[in-house]
Design goal:
CATH class: Alpha Beta
Helix content: 25-40%
Number of helices: 14
CATH architecture: Alpha-Beta Complex
Distance between the termini: 32 Å
Mean pLDDT: 96
Shape: globular
């Protein structure tokens, strides 16, 4: 990105003043190197979002921002229904409620190393992964609707997980306002046998070691200690979420024309929040959120079963489960006044600060755990929400490393087998059905996650708590 087109506010904040139909400024949080490495499409997309009706304060891009469908991945925008605000399926993404769940094992790396190969093989056998992967669960129409309405609570009622999990899952494990009847039969058919599966792309299940602690007090409350081992699961709503996005983008394009909304890009198809199309999408999208919450709950249970066999002493308590592809109604201050806004986060993680009423009692004084996924060869991070984050970007932070290279380019650069062998030499065991998928997700295809996290911390979006490095990675 051409830095000359931006106004530098600080070392980690860059502005684009409103122009040519922009209702609000665009704001990019990143250091100079990260901004310079962003492609010009990020500039185009973050300013295009600022042209949508009813947007308030600013259109934001996180430090890991890169080109996406309509909205940049790493984009955040808030819309006020009282001001003609819209909802956009492109501002949520096709993988509705894709997110990360992290569980504490109570084990050390030394304990894991003694059985690491067995563990990798057992997890790979237990948790289906890859394009079109299916599991052992088959949902009939009635069960499908119950799952879409109940989320992780539905999964728990069917024996997946523990009651204590629910207070560590956003929305208490079930998104209110879900409308299963507004999810198409085709979307439900695609999901019928995909519950409890990782899918493909950048999704994974990783066994990770806590390699660094930056905030000892918060880490202790989070249950993280140097040398300890956690399990992180990164996945979403699978085929159902993709189908919802595909269908409603078409409906929104028609609605935008009918409402006289001038779109700078057809991929920004949207509908007024209070319109029939907007309300239908919200009901279906919330059902998609519940699908993802149920899916991660099931995978968490399957993971616990594997650990129970190899490590009977392990507990696998849930640290937190949070999404990074959603639109939710949240109360935030605008010009000093609290307002109920529809917060689009696409490739951006919610980061509520200390004292927020939606956080469980044990976490409330310290802020929400913000789970940041990295590439399989580098590391992931646990951050904590800050009080400053609400004023910065509606309590939002980055979500991962962010791609710096397309999957096509990655395939031309790496071979999957070589990536697996190189990582094995570094003590990282990878299990995947697809050599192509491993090549597409090669660590070198991603930005430096440490730089992204450092920028998020320095910009006041979230503060660093701990770094996690992979020991075992199950990939699609």
């Amino acid at each position: 990105m051409d830095l000359a087109k931006l106004d530098r506010v600080s070392a980690f904040e860059w502005h684009i003043a409103p122009r040519a139909g922009m209702h609000v400024p665009a704001v990019i949080y990143a250091d100079e190197d990260l901004v310079g490495d962003m492609d010009d499409k990020v500039y185009e997309q973050v300013t295009n979002v600022a042209r949508l009706p009813g947007i308030v304060t600013a259109s934001y891009a996180m430090p890991d921002a890169h080109w996406g469908y309509g909205f940049p991945i790493g984009g955040v925008a808030a819309f006020d229904p009282a001001g003609g605000g819209v909802i956009s399926a492109g501002g949520v993404g096709f993988d509705i409620s894709c997110g990360v769940r992290t569980m504490l094992t109570g084990l050390t790396r030394t304990e894991i190393e003694a059985h690491k190969v067995e563990l990798a093989d057992a997890l790979f056998a237990k948790v289906p992964a890859g394009v079109g992967s299916t599991g052992r669960i088959r949902l009939d129409p009635e069960q499908m609707d119950a799952m879409l309405a109940g989320g992780a609570r539905w999964a728990l009622s069917h024996g997946y997980g523990e009651p204590a999990d629910l207070e560590r899952i956003e929305e208490g494990g079930a998104m209110q306002g879900a409308r299963p009847e507004l999810v198409s039969p085709k979307a439900k058919t695609r999901q019928r046998d995909e519950m409890g599966t990782l899918g493909s792309g950048n999704h994974y299940l990783e066994v990770q070691e806590v390699a660094a602690v930056y905030d000892a007090d918060t880490a202790a409350i989070f249950g993280l200690s140097l040398g300890g081992v956690v399990v992180s699961i990164h996945c979403g709503s699978r085929g159902l979420g993709h189908q919802i996005g595909t269908e409603y983008l078409r409906d929104m394009a028609i609605a935008a024309d009918r409402e006289g909304i001038s779109l700078p890009d057809r991929e920004l198809a949207c509908a007024p929040i209070n319109s029939p199309v907007g309300q239908r999408y919200l009901g279906a999208m919330r059902a998609g959120i519940n699908c993802a919450l149920a899916n991660r709950q099931i995978i968490g249970h399957l993971t616990r079963e594997v650990f129970a066999t190899l490590f009977p002493q392990a507990r696998l308590e849930l640290l937190f489960d949070v999404s990074h592809n959603t639109c939710k109604v949240e109360r935030h201050k605008v010009d000093g006044e609290p307002r109920d806004l529809y917060i689009h986060r696409k490739g951006a993680t919610r980061a509520f600060g200390p004292g927020h009423s939606d956080l469980p009692d044990a976490l409330r004084p310290f802020g929400q755990p913000v789970l940041i996924g990295g590439s399989m060869g580098t590391g992931s991070y646990v951050l904590a929400g800050t009080a400053a984050s609400e004023a910065r970007a509606f309590s939002s932070a980055c979500h991962g490393a962010g791609r710096r290279m397309s999957r096509h380019q990655a395939l031309k650069t790496w071979r999957g087998r070589q990536v697996v062998d190189d990582l094995a030499e570094r003590g990282i065991l990878v299990r995947s059905k697809s050599a192509r998928g491993v090549a597409e997700e090669a660590p070198g295809a991603y930005k430096d996650v440490a730089a992204v996290v450092d920028a998020s911390d320095a910009a006041g979006l979230a503060r660093k708590v701990a770094k996690l490095i992979p020991l075992v990675c199950i990939k699609g």
